[in-house]
Fold this sequence. Notes:
Elements: E1 5-9, H1 16-26, E2 37-41, H2 47-54, E3 59-63, H3 80-86, E4 90-93, H4 96-102, H5 106-118, E5 122-127, H6 131-135, H7 139-150, H8 156-159, E6 163-166, H9 180-197, H10 200-205, E7 207-211, H11 219-223, E8 230-233, H12 240-247
Helix pairs in contact: 1-2, 1-12, 7-9
Amino acid sequence: xxxxxxxxxxxxxxxxxxxxxxxxxxxxxxxxxxxxxxxxxxxxxxxxxxxxxxxxxxxxxxxxxxxxxxxxxxxxxxxxxxxxxxxxxxxxxxxxxxxxxxxxxxxxxxxxxxxxxxxxxxxxxxxxxxxxxxxxxxxxxxxxxxxxxxxxxxxxxxxxxxxxxxxxxxxxxxxxxxxxxxxxxxxxxxxxxxxxxxxxxxxxxxxxxxxxxxxxxxxxxxxxxxxxxxxxxxxxxxxxxxxxxxxxx
Length: 249
């Protein structure tokens, strides 16, 4: 049984004081059991105070990006070992905003995934098609290629903890969402791709999230689907009430 995982991607939002206040507000709103894995991904500047405020809870903290080298002359970058040392557990890689605006490629996503796994961190690997690719009927092809290239050279024994986030680009921050049926169809295809690239057993363990304008009003329709194991939440993760409602779907 795969444990559902709800992760909040704050993107470039919240000063440190706002981040700490958010966690203070969120904690009493969360269910007391640990049936859902809860992850907050603040900007780099807020990682330390958020980790400290989450201490003693079951809320995990993730970063939004990483470099694949341990150290060196990479101005403005952060290594997996630095994140691990802070107490980070997860790291988002390959988000469409990173791919579109900052030059991330399938190859660099693969390097980052390997580096995170080597450091004992869990990658949340984002895949998804653009509106143009969707309208051309290439959704399966695009997602399949991104998954294959992200996992190239990664052994099945190392891949069990990886999380995949299917985020159709046309649904991110637009208010549009894929129907739960369409999301299930794509995510089922992603799981078949994982089975082929890794093996059936590992593919059955890997959690696959849906992301793209997820809200309290639509989370249940996604979570009732067989292959959808959680959500990568953007805008709705910036408000403690809405994020807690998504977790308590």
